[in-house]
Structures are given as structure tokens and as C-alpha cells.
Fold:
Amino acid sequence: MEATIALLQRHNELETIDTPLDIYLEIPQLAYIEAKRANGGKALLFTKPMRGEKPCEMPVLMNVFGSFRRVELIATKTPEAIATRIKDLLNLAPPKGLKGLLNALRRYSVLRFAIPKYVSKSSAQEVRYLGKEVDLYKLPILTTWESDSAPFITMGQVYTQSLDGSKKNLGLYRLQVHSRNELGLHWQIHKDSTHFFHEYKRAGEKMPVTIALGGDPLYTWCAQAPLPHGAYELMLYGVIKDKRVEVVRSLTNPLSVPSGVDIIIEGYVDTTRLKDEGPFGDHTGFYTPIEPYPVLEITAITHKSKPIYPATIVGKPPLEDKYMGYLTERVFLPLLQTSAHGLLDYNMPENGVFHNLILAKLAPQYPGHARQLMHAFWGVGQMSFVKHAIFVGEDAPDLSDYPALLKYVLDRFSVKGLVISEGVCDALDHASPEYAYGGKLGLDVAEKGLVGQMEEVSDCELLARLKEVDSGVEIVRQYGAGARVRVAIVGLNSMGHKAEGAITLESFARACSGVSEMMKIAILVDSWKNDLDNPYMLVWRIVNNIDAKRDVLIQGEQVFIDARDKPQSPAHPRAWPKETDCSKEVIERLKQKGFSIDEQLLHRFHICGSPATR
Structure:
């Protein structure tokens, strides 16, 4: 990663930190705060990572993708340029005439870079630990959150292949350190690696896995690229960079990885053995529960003579994945358009943690076009994980202009535009009653409907009326000023005397029938843990906490959405997880070591907890 560090230094995108800091909480939580600064802060190179009182041998590099500028530097092209290249490759129309043939040959000539080139040596294999010499604790693997069950590798390029070797895959999965020579592999049930795993299991054979760390950061981005099933993600690197990837074979299994990486971890998975993995504070901003996952039994660890250990941090947005997700979103729009006819653009806001909220713009060509695309999204690749989708027409504002877009949506809102469905969801989703399966909510406002003008009332007036409905209502904020319909965020405590115990969605909706002219959309939240004047974090918590089949209730022209935490019950048998909060003690230690911590930043992004829990 020396070349990446030099690149970032030349463009003033790197800060070097020579203060000794612990790989347990201190380094990751400082990087967590840095990633939330304006424009993503700087990439951070920690030159003196510590494991307690003992120095670690390898520096740690974090927040490499954490700005739009750094993403373009790493990709060497703008997202638009890469998207254009992919769109050209997808243009399968037969060429016309000699000029058309020459243009087609020029366009497709880039595919010569997609095939990896094998080499016999790699600097990443200079230092070798084999068999009993293997020790993961020699690597500066970070523990990010206090309730994480162990240290986790977060930037591991995971290389696998099918049983017959005909298909190869590069994935990005979290990797839990179980022991000095065992890693938990958190590949989810829908991923190619899992399909390969079942092939080996049926054959009764161990599955080879090799993990690479470092090298060109674009390898890591390619690992999370949503390519079609069976496509090898490493080929995308060559298409973007205009050069073939040089790969080297692992020492102890048949897999190959880029020769320019910093660290290589090799081994085999015993497909008859699973081990509990987690909890881990993941990119949703919540801890994911303990679940059984495969275990990699490590046979070798090799690395450069002077390796750099790369890591990222996940938790509440905004973080580094905001910028990685932006590149993915822009680059793969042309590919998505091939299966979603009429799609003009889409946007996955980072505070919707990508899979929880998607905004899409289309040019409707027939009745139900937007709903057709909703179901196409819910049935295609990684888009099938999307929980909430809002489809707007071609006359809508730019999808990243959220205030203008909100007014557009609310001017056209009608309960007739709501679609409630169900299907697969991200295995990390905690709101669904079942693991990896739950409700989905769509809203079609692509065609302007007839919506009555709501009665104008102030927050104070609406709060007074709702307190008459139930004493558990403590605060109200309305969003969408000037629109024909507004959204009322209703902060509730856990009890209300008119509901005779806990305030249920159904009892609240029934009691609100008399305020239908002043409240069309009501979203219920816990007053004790939400700042109703912070729309960014409200969206994050709301879309995380909803399962549409359970938490959305339509009553006449009103819609009620329950975005509160859910107690364990028959309707939600799973335990509700904790949020990822920085340790106040760690923050104080960082201050004492001379680091400036912006208190407004801590408050705005709920870094040390929600408003009432700090």
C-alpha cells in the first residue's frame, strides 16, 4: 500500500498519526469520528498501533475511501467515466459499416485487461508463517466496539472458487478472530461464496479460502461490487484500470490473489463445522446477533517485509462506506437499467444504510410501470435486499436534493401509491421478525395523483390534539412545510393511560381518526432516544426499525408507521439489538492524548449514544 500512501500524501488526503494508540477501541473510534467530519476527513495512517502495552509491528491505514476525491484518485477515473465504459460494453447492437466495426473493436478491446496474469513470485510472500507458526495476533486486527465478541478483519478480500474451479469469486466479508489460527467467515446466505460452500459440503470436501489484505484499494472496492452471479469481481479491476491484474498462487491451497497485496491468509474450511460468530457492531449502526458461520482453519500467513494493515470502521452513518457506495451506485446504473426498463436514475442515501432505502426516478410509459420496477428491484441480485423504495417521475428534482425531493413526494402522496410486499432482506437486518426475510414498503409517486390540501397546524397545536388522544405523546415535529401533505414525527414514551399499557400502533391509529385532516402520515418514534430536530439521524433510525408487514398501518387516507424499538413478542421474537456507541472513556483518553474532538459532531451523529442516553 506504499503507492496508495504516496498518492494520498501528494494530494493532501492523508494524516499521519505517530501517537501510540491501542488497536482495542482507540484507533477505530478515532477513525470513526474522523470519517464523520466535513467531506469525510482525511485518511489516517497510524504508525504506532499498540496491543495494550506492546507495540504492533505493522502500521494501520484507515478511511482510505472516505471522500469523493479519494475515491476518484483510487479508481483513476470518475464514476461517470467508468459507468460510460460499462454502458459501452453492454451495448450489444450489431455494428454498422466499417467505421462501426472499428468502434466496436476499440470498445471491446478493454476486455483484454479483464483476464488476470499469473506470476510466480510476490512480495506479499516474502515473510512466511506456516502450520504451527501461524498467529493472527501478530496482525494489528482492531476491536471497534465494546460489545464486539472479538477483533474483526474488516477489509479482507475473500477469494473462493467453485468445486470444479470453473467459477471464481472475490467478496468482502467481516472476519472474526476465533483463535490464533481460526477466522469466522460471515458470508451471507445469498452470496456466491455460500453457493460454493454448499458444493464442497455435498462433495464432502474441505473448501479452500484465501484472504488478501492491502495492495491497491480498488481490489477491496471490487470485492463488494454487485456483479451478476458467476462473474469474477477481480476482472472488473482490469476493465477500470486498463491493466491486467498480476496474480500469484497461494502456498497451501489452489487459489490465486493479486501479487501486489500486503498480507495473505490461506486455509481451508471444514464444511461440516460451524461456530458461533458475533455479536459485531455492523454498518447498520446496530450490533448483529450471534449466529453460526463457517470457520477458516489457517494453514499459512505471509506478508511483505514492511506491510501496511488496512482497516475500515462500520457503525452509524456517515462513514467510509458512503463513498464506496456512491462509486458503486454510479458505476452500476447502466447494468441496473438493462433489467429495469425506463429507469433514469437511482440514489441510495447513506443514512438509509443503502439496502434500507432507495430512491428511483423513471419515465412512466404505462400504468403500473413504477410498481413493476419495484418488484424488479426486489427480485434482482443485491437489489433484492432493499426494504423501502420510493419511485418518482422524470420531472422530480435531483435525487440527492433531499429537501426538494421530499416536497415533490409529499405533493403527490396518496395511500393508493403504497405497496406492501415481502421477501429476502439483508441478513444484518434486525427489524424483520425472521432472519433474512421480512416486509418491504414501496411508494409510487411517479404519476401525480389528486391529493387534498391538509389543514395547516403548528407543531404545538398538533401536539396538543395528540395529547388528547394519548398522554404518551411527548413531542411532535412536522416535515414538509409548504407541501400538500406533511409528515408528523410523533415522539412517544413507552406508556399511555388511554392505551391501558403500551401504546400499540393499532390503538394509536384508532384514536387518531379524529385528526385525519391535520395528520396524514404519522411516524411513531421513541421520544427518549430520538432528536426530532435531526432529520439525518431520524431517517437512519426509522428505516432501520421498520418491517412493513408489521409496522405499517393504513387507515382511510392516513398511514401510521411504527419506528420504535420492538420488545420481544410473538410479533417480533428476536431480541432487539444495541446501537453502536463510542465509549465515553475512550473519547476522554483521546482528548487527553491531544486529539481535538468536535462536541457538535458527537451530538449531531449520536456518536456516544442517542440524546437521552448520553
Remarks:
- The CA atoms of residues 406 and 480 lie 7 Å apart.
- The first strand starts at residue 14 and ends at 17.
